[in-house]
Write a structure and sequence with these properties.
- This protein has nine helices and two strands.
- Helices cover about 55% and strands about 5% of the residues.
- By secondary structure, it is mainly α.
- Helix 2 packs across helix 5.
- Strand 1 (about 5-10) and strand 2 (about 15-20) form a beta hairpin.
């Protein structure tokens, strides 16, 4: 996956760039009535989604990838001729690229899930509040991928408090969780040298 949230896929007879930046994810959520994470899970499970959700996702991602609105609309209209599984797979890859970022370089606290609400939608107010605190405009924020934003927040936090301890590793989190629930001995701590 890419750091700027794009993926290049064969679509409509040519290699096309798809990208859903934060502003595109916000537009997708508003248009289809459910969160991008929820849509990704529904597509992955193969149920409880509408074909119009796929159309909207791909149209927004084609425009986000640099294609003109008219051409994106024309290509998305051709989905009726595409095998259903191919359309689902394309939308799944597009959403995964937008939401996962760079797997080889997790940002912040181990790449934990973002600000998802109980209904599966993203809470965008937190993004805008954090961007304002860092001096970013809403336009700057909306142009970023989720990974780019997380990296920006992480850099901002490290610059403000360079002596802050590193977050727990996933193995340390698991050990602490087990210890808190009485499933094992206390987690080992490193002794100072």
């Amino acid at each position: 996956m890419s750091r700027n949230g794009h993926v290049d896929l064969d679509f409509g007879g040519a290699l096309r760039r798809f990208r859903l930046a934060i502003g595109d994810l916000e537009a997708l959520q508003e248009e289809i009535g459910l969160g991008p994470l929820d849509l990704l899970h529904r597509l992955h499970r193969g149920r409880s989604f509408r074909f119009s959700d796929i159309r909207t996702c791909l149209r927004l991602a084609l425009v986000g990838g640099g294609l003109g609105v008219t051409e994106a609309d024309r290509l998305v209209a051709s989905l009726d001729a595409m095998p259903c599984l191919e359309a689902i797979a394309t939308a799944t890859l597009v959403l995964a690229a937008a939401l996962d970022g760079a797997a080889d370089e997790p940002v912040g606290r181990g790449g934990e899930d973002g600000p998802a609400r109980a209904d599966g939608r993203l809470a965008f107010a937190g993004f805008y509040a954090a961007a304002a605190a860092m001096g970013l405009s809403p336009l700057d924020l909306r142009a970023m991928s989720l990974w780019q934003f997380a990296a920006t927040v992480d850099g901002f936090n490290r610059a403000r408090d360079p002596d802050a301890p590193e977050p727990l590793t996933p193995a340390e989190e698991d050990a602490l969780w087990s210890w808190l629930h009485g499933e094992s001995a206390a987690p080992a701590t490193e002794e100072p040298a």
